[in-house]
Design goal:
The complex is a heterodimer.
Chain A lengths: L12 E7 L2 E7 L1 H6 L10 H8 L26 H7 L7 H4 L1 H11 L16 H21 L3 H14 L1
Antiparallel strand pairs in A: 1-2
Helix pairs in contact in A: 2-5, 6-7
Chain B lengths: L3 H4 L16 E10 L12 H17 L6 E4 L6 H9 L5 H4 L6 E5 L4 E5 L5 E8 L3 H16 L6 E2 L3 E2 L11 E8 L1 H5 L3 H10 L2 E4 L12 E6 L7 H30 L1 H17 L5 H21 L4 H8 L15 H10 L2 H8 L5 H17 L1
Antiparallel strand pairs in B: 1-5, 1-8, 2-3, 3-4, 4-5, 6-7, 8-10, 9-10
Helix pairs in contact in B: 3-13, 8-9, 9-10, 9-11, 9-14, 10-11, 10-12
The chains are: A mainly alpha, B alpha+beta.
Chain lengths: 164, 374
């Protein structure tokens, strides 16, 4: 079957849409499907993430407080409005100051991940290192359970108990 | 050091050597780091940027990289030199044409660059020829450890290495490979490849990174997720799953061309050779496009024993395909050399002055003609 748009390439994407009881079908090649915005989107572009940022403010906020976008970081003077404008943050403390608003964005940008897993600077305090190791062990345990590798899961669980 | 000391040669990562080098041109690992106690660059006044630059430059010039290192004050060099560094993948477009005090510390053999004050305070990169991601990771980790002994990075136990943009948060790692996929393009399967990579959450860019087109059938593939996944797991996924599959698809497309469309393949290579050997004016886009077909022909001969009239003609231009050091005629290294040395900034830097586009096209055609005609 040929693509309905370019009439040259083979149609590999078949879209059926039912709106107001009317069924329409489209048969497109991959390139035309992409140009028409049809298909799966694997990751969310940064600007799209940013535009949704200010709509995720904490619930039940008092009207007298400054709006989410105007909240200021005491270390760099940045606001969320400024972040939205520049697409970069003002200082490392922003991750703490704006954590509530940034958390959903971070989760979306990183495929659902919410905390670090990987290299840790050698000079990190022992407590933080321990916390990180626990997080990583928990993650490995979840993975082992998901894969139904119960032998590994048991070992990881024991390790976690030892750690705590 | 003067850039003309390196501009006449190809660099290590573009040598055409290394594992799976008929498809994987190079491997790169980049780490994004910021100093604790400083603002990110967007909020930094020039004085703070200068302080960060001074601090990081001193640290980087003092560590042992096993090679001579040189420093480029990116904010101070002429635009032509900036463009040269971008063409050579030593700095990014953003770094070249950004604002404020910034610089780069580069290893003479060009396997390592540290960009200071790009989007983050520090962007480290290690580049190697062919498919060598684990070696890149191992080396960049060692360099990162040495730097870390002298500075304190912005790090949070929850979010990892803190970066200016939340999309780099966590490991701050960008793992990428530069791929040459001419057969997937010729057989009309490149869109399938692009869609498949997107569904794996990978980014595909052109030859010179973000916002560039895939000139000469070169594609840069890189990870997007940097939080919640370990550095070595990203590298393993590339090394064990993603790269072997893409290489297999490209090889299958090459076999398909040879068995079912050998006249099309032969015609493309034949035309490329005829144009490159005879043209008086060649744009850099056209040169990349035509040299890509020459590279395909040479690699198909070397790796698949392909023989068509045009491939045989290519091979008769030099009988040293892939074996370095015998003759400087038509080897993969020679074609890669032509790819690099005929890029606009390379041409002009080696010529000694800026040229208009017609003069560049003439000079490019002349260099290619003399390499192919002997």
């Amino acid at each position: 079957m040929q693509c309905e748009v370019c009439q040259s390439k083979e149609a590999t994407i078949h879209l059926t849409e039912i709106a107001d009881g009317v069924r329409t079908e489209m048969h497109l090649c991959e390139q035309c499907a992409q140009e028409q915005g049809v298909g799966t989107k694997s990751y969310i572009p940064l600007n799209e993430l940013l535009s949704s940022l200010l709509s995720v403010g904490p619930k039940g906020e008092e009207p007298a407080q400054p709006s989410v976008g105007e909240q200021v970081c005491p270390h760099c003077g940045y606001t969320l409005d400024k972040f939205q404008e520049k697409a970069v943050l003002g200082c490392p403390n922003d991750y703490e100051v704006f954590e509530k608003q940034l958390a959903p964005l971070i989760k979306k940008a990183h495929d659902g991940a919410t905390c670090h897993c990987g290299k840790v600077p050698a000079n990190t305090p022992t407590d933080s290192k321990k916390q990180l190791e626990i997080t990583q062990l928990r993650r490995q345990l979840d993975e082992a359970v998901r894969k139904e590798d119960y032998e590994l899961a048991a070992k990881l669980r024991d390790k976690l108990v030892e750690f705590k | 050091m003067k850039l003309t000391e390196i501009s006449g040669n190809i660099n290590e990562w573009f040598s055409g050597e290394g594992p799976l080098s008929d498809v994987v041109i190079s491997s790169r690992v980049r780490l994004a780091r910021n100093l604790a106690g400083h603002r990110f660059l967007a909020a930094c006044p020039a004085t703070e940027k200068a302080e960060i630059l001074r601090k990081l430059k001193d640290v980087l010039m003092g560590i042992d990289l096993g090679d001579e290192v040189f420093y480029i004050g990116v904010d101070k060099v002429p635009a032509l030199e900036k463009r040269f560094l971008v063409e050579r993948h030593l700095i990014s477009q953003n770094h070249a044409f950004g604002k404020g005090p910034r610089g780069a510390v580069i290893a003479r053999r060009e396997f390592f660059t540290a960009m200071i004050n790009e989007e983050d305070h520090l962007r480290l990169q290690v580049l190697k020829a062919g498919c060598q991601l684990p070696a890149c990771l191992e080396q960049i980790n060692r360099i990162d450890d040495m730097i870390e002994q002298k500075v304190e990075y912005a790090f949070s136990p929850k979010y990892g290495y803190l970066t200016a943009c939340p999309t780099n948060l966590g490991t701050g790692i960008r793992v990428s490979v530069m791929l040459h996929l001419p057969a997937l393009k010729m057989t009309g399967q490149i869109e399938k490849f692009l869609n498949a990579t997107k569904s794996l959450g990978l980014a595909v860019r052109g030859l010179f990174g973000e916002g560039t087109e895939a000139a000469g059938d070169f594609y840069q593939l890189s990870n997007q997720t940097t939080l919640g996944v370990r550095e070595k797991d990203i590298v393993t996924q590339f090394e064990k799953t993603i790269i072997p599959e893409i290489v297999e698809y490209e090889h299958a497309a090459r076999s398909q061309l040879l068995s079912h469309e050998s006249s099309l393949l032969d015609d493309k290579i034949s035309r490329a050779l005829a144009l490159l050997k005879n043209a008086n004016l060649i744009s850099s886009q056209e040169a990349l496009f035509l040299l890509s077909h020459i590279r395909l022909g040479l690699n198909m001969h070397k790796h698949q024993g392909a023989s068509t009239p045009a491939i045989d003609r290519l091979c008769s231009l030099g009988n040293d395909i892939g074996s370095a050091g015998t003759s400087d005629r038509l080897s993969i290294a020679t074609v890669n050399r032509l790819f690099l040395l005929t890029l606009p900034a390379h041409l002009q830097l080696n010529y000694g002055k800026e040229l208009d586009s017609t003069h560049r096209d003439a000079l490019r055609a002349q260099i290619i003609r003399s390499a192919l005609n002997g």
